[in-house]
Amino acid sequence: MTQIIQEIKKTQPVTVLLCTAERGDSLVPTVTSILSATGNSRCDELLVIDQSADGRTEKAIAPFLDDPRLRFIRSATKGKGISLNFGVEWAKNEIIAITDDDVEVFPDWLDGHLEAFETHPKVALTYGQVLPVDFDSSAGFIPIYLFEQDRHVKTFPDKLEARGIGANTCIRRDVIRGLGGFDPTLGPGGKFFACVDGDMTVRCLIGGYEIYETHKSKVYHYGFRSWEQGRKLARNAWYGIGAAYAKPLRLGYWKTLPIPAHEFFNYALFPFIKKTLRGRPQGWIPIKSFLQGFVAGWKAPIDQKTLRFIAE
Description:
This protein is an alpha/beta fold. The chain has helices spanning 28-36, 56-60, 80-90, 109-119, 173-178, 196-206, 227-250, 258-277, 284-299, and strands at 14-20, 43-50, 70-74, 95-99, 103-105, 123-132, 140-141, 151-153, 168-172, 210-221, 225-226, 302-303, 308-309.
């Protein structure tokens, strides 16, 4: 049942949540871009949750600790889903913007997100664009998310082409808390490795809320992966996608079926078939990993109230 959500006012402050681990000095450009962004006049809190095993990251951002907006918290836990839930609980503002620890935000990156919340009261989750920095495409790739027009996702079919990623997203805290928070078994460091954001998208739709993708919001992504690293990333990503999208089907939410079907056929099976017909059979990893993740997710215990996997 959709809860009543508060109106977002044009002067309402924002928390920026940054979950990180083992970044050290490389986190400095991210923090610098967030604190200096001119569009961040409504950002009165940057909450950094550090799951690093050592103190390199804390030392690297020590020069920023005099800024009253910055809150730095060390955690001995592991997993992005856990960090996200800490942020949801500890943030002081209703609107929480979330980005990754290997990006630089555009000066006005918050504007599109906030406009969506102010204009559409049922929107609980927004996504923006993720652009690549310059890199050698012969050596690897950078995960990106580009689109030219806004998307207002109200139904499960609307979700099919809306595939926003967690490097540029924004949430209503009270709604996410009401849904039980993020699933800590999903995402980097979790049992199922990935899809913590896609899972929350589907759970918001099941809960009667809406999603909005704003092309106005942009961040630069520095997350270069070699082709060898890409194979591991693909395995983890597709395993998590399969597991996450098995949950609602297992609980009888059959209206969500188009989402995993679209992911599997359009982005895993059909590309493999096309390459095979051209005499270059490649792309078996997404098919195999999705099916393995789907079976694992189907078998795993699920909290029927929150639609989160029950940690074993």
